[in-house]
Design goal:
heterodimer, A: mainly alpha, 12 helices, 0% strand, B: mainly alpha, globular, disordered N terminus, disordered C terminus
């Protein structure tokens, strides 16, 4: 029927097609931004109600920046002190556990990769996968059981150390999994060359292997920090039994269980969010490392299942 | 002969690099393997350390436990379904340069993940309750706790569903889609016959990344339902408590093992799907 179209007809058809595409594009954009709005809604909600004093979130009782002023009155306000202490604890646990994970995990990955016996390699790789696929709650209670036994046998109560151990268990597999691909990409003859040229094994390790796998190590470190900062379950089961030690996660949980979040926490969350926003923007401009971090987290899990 | 000599030469040397895994191996044995063995031990013993399978009987004769395990599957299944339903088009649009020129939108989707998830969940709860009170006159978390839990879980795990799908879709062969359209397939056919088959690995990994953690994340369930025991994670947690001092709970250990079995089963199912999709892919490309 449409064997021969005049130029006008072609133009008309093209215009119609373009119009349709434009409409589709608008619908798609609306959808994306709608979901995005939903994802940010709780945070925006908290941010809005951080500017009112009412104890119940969702009830506006006049604009006030008291939440912010009391939040920074660390010595004068007990809640503010608690919040900052919890924040400090969270960061301390994250940094210490990530550092340990990186050292143990990197050495572990190298060891696994160069292990001569296949069963050693397979066993260690399997064990490394356990914390990844296991439910966090099972990891947490099993560690808790172990620490209770430690307490009975050696009088070693749960402390900062047990908490760090818990977080290392959580993050060490991801260090191993992010270092492993770098080892695979490495040129094996470099190490041999270094040895032939008279380097000791330790020298070859630090001058050849480690510099080559540094990107993987860094990814592992960032992942460890991220996992540790956001962790609740393992923290709750391995944190010190005495002294009211809390990280942000357990502090928030305990406060809500008692009834109601302290209003200062809304101010804290808002500040935290703004800081994250700024850091993200800055890092985004500089590099796309964060995306890579997330991608490798996913890739890590994927590798495990293959 | 020559290779045997070579082998001898390499074997003679102490495997320094291989030995580096020792601290890792010790740590993992002590803090990953041993704790799990302890759980197994507790699941099969009574308070005096005698072997028994009574714990299993106690768990499985309680109808309440069966209900909770069932609801765990429902909640995890529903969460996975809605996550994929929302994440799939989002990932598609994000991976399409027509809608997302630079990858910046992807970061914007990931950004809330960096705020502590307990805080996010509580913010969400306040928001959900605020809206439901305004519309229905009651808190959603108390009137329909399971709906609230699924909302909470979908909210928290959506980025985990978006990422694997997004990655997969970046790898998608756009020419194939265009070819299908040019050869006369209508949009629905293009979607079912080219886009979906190309993204099956992404769908599978998105499913596991949401299904498995939702089964155990008792905090979200707890917060969104107002401290009831809605899913198996909460059940385990309630047996151990977060401050156990007595030697561990045998019933809780049984439940942990049940949880482990469910995870093992989901892994097997996932692997089966993965294999199937790989075979299919083999024929397609």
């Amino acid at each position: 029927m449409e064997k021969k179209m005049t130029i006008e007809q072609v133009n008309l058809a093209l215009a119609r097609k373009r119009k349709k595409e434009k409409a589709l594009k608008i619908i798609a954009k609306v959808f994306v931004y709608f979901v995005l709005a939903l994802m940010y809604a709780p945070l925006v909600y908290i941010a809005i109600f951080s500017f009112t004093k009412n104890k119940v979130a969702g009830v506006w009782s006049g604009f006030s920046i008291e939440n912010y002023t009391t939040l920074f009155n660390i010595s004068g306000n007990k809640i503010a002190g608690d919040i900052w202490r919890a924040a400090g604890n969270t960061i301390a646990v994250a940094v210490v556990s990530a550092a340990i994970s990186v050292v143990l995990g990197t050495l572990g990955a190298i060891g696994i990769f160069y292990a001569r016996r296949k069963w050693v390699r397979n066993t260690l790789e399997f064990v490394n996968q356990i914390p990844v696929v296991n439910a966090e709650i099972v990891t947490a209670v099993s560690l808790c059981v172990l620490f209770v036994i430690f307490a009975k046998m050696f009088g070693m109560e749960r402390s900062f150390l047990t908490l760090v151990i818990g977080h290392v268990v959580l993050s060490i597999p991801y260090v191993v999994l992010s270092v492993k691909p770098k080892l695979e990409q490495m040129d094996p003859s470099l190490y041999e060359a270094a040895m032939d040229l008279g380097a000791t094994q330790t020298q070859a390790l630090f001058k050849i292997i480690i510099p080559d796998i540094i990107p993987g190590v860094l990814t592992g470190f960032l992942l460890s920090i991220t996992l540790s900062l956001d962790d609740y379950v393992i923290t709750a089961f391995t944190k010190p039994t005495s002294g009211g030690f809390d990280t942000i996660s357990t502090y928030v949980d305990a406060q809500t269980a008692k009834g109601g979040l302290p209003t200062q926490l809304r101010a804290f969350t808002t500040i935290l969010f703004v800081i994250i926003l700024i850091v993200m923007v800055v890092m985004n401009i500089r590099s796309s490392r964060i995306a890579k971090t997330f991608l490798s987290k996913k890739e890590a899990t994927k590798n495990v299942q293959d | 002969m020559a290779s045997a000599v070579m082998e001898n030469k390499t074997k003679r040397r102490f495997n320094f690099r291989g030995s580096l895994c020792m601290p890792f191996a010790v740590f993992m044995t002590l803090f990953v393997v041993l704790p799990l063995l302890l759980i197994v031990y507790y699941a099969f013993t009574d308070g005096d350390g005698n072997f028994t399978i009574k714990n299993w009987g106690t768990v499985f004769t309680d109808v309440e436990n069966w209900k909770i395990i069932g609801m765990t599957f429902v909640v995890a299944g529903a969460t996975t379904f809605f996550c994929i339903l929302i994440a799939y088009p989002i990932a598609y649009l994000l991976s399409n340069s027509k809608y997302n020129k630079n990858a910046i939108l992807v970061y914007i989707f990931l950004l809330p993940m960096w705020v502590n998830f307990v805080i996010r969940t509580i913010g969400l709860k306040a928001l959900v309750n605020g809206i439901s009170t305004a519309i229905f006159g009651s808190d959603l978390t108390s009137s329909a706790p399971y709906v609230a839990i699924v909302i909470g879980m979908v909210y928290d795990y959506l980025p985990f569903a978006i990422l694997p799908l997004y990655n997969q879709m970046l790898k998608m062969d756009k020419n194939q889609i265009e070819a299908a359209a040019d050869l006369g397939a209508n949009p629905a056919q293009v979607f079912i016959k080219t886009i979906i088959p190309m993204t099956v690995p992404g769908i599978i990994s998105a499913c596991t990344m949401t299904f498995m953690p939702t089964m155990s994340s008792y905090v979200i369930a707890n917060k969104m339902s107002g401290n009831t025991k809605p899913i198996i994670g909460n059940l385990i947690q309630s047996y151990f408590g977060s401050n156990i001092s007595a030697i561990s709970d045998h019933i809780g250990s049984v439940l942990s093992l049940v949880m482990l079995m469910i995870i093992g089963l989901s892994l097997v199912v996932e692997k089966a799907f993965d294999k199937k999709s790989n075979q299919k892919a083999g024929g397609l490309y």
